[in-house]
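Quick question, first post here. What does this chain look like in 3D?
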Amino acid sequence: MEYDKEYLEKVKAAQAASATRPAANPFFRMRRTSPLDMSSVMGAYVKDMKLSRGLETHRICEAWDSASGAGQFTLRKFFRSGTLYVTLTSSMVRSQLWFQRAELSARMNSILAADPLYSGKENPVKNIILK
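> Answer (accepted):
Ran it through. Tokens below.
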């Protein structure tokens, strides 16, 4: 198979450019540094990938399940700007939890403060709305 002269020149130029790329670009060069612990690497990864907001919401929903004990009666949980919206299947459970909202939010905040994987702000749950 015969190639066009122009095509071969383009291929050679591309090969030459890719051969010099690692030396020209400092991001391709690996440098030895001191070892990092896994917690700092994971924290940087979560921050760089912008996953912290979703992980914090997940931790808040887990704190609801452990603080309220109504995980089996919970259909949906949604957290936005300090308010946790919870949809329950049982009206009796909802009426019992309605009177305990302040205690539940305090208990959830203490659970989140003790959680080493939660890195959000202090006292994130300010209000609980039960549906």
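The beta strands are 74-80, 83-88, 127-130.
The chain has a mean pLDDT of 84.
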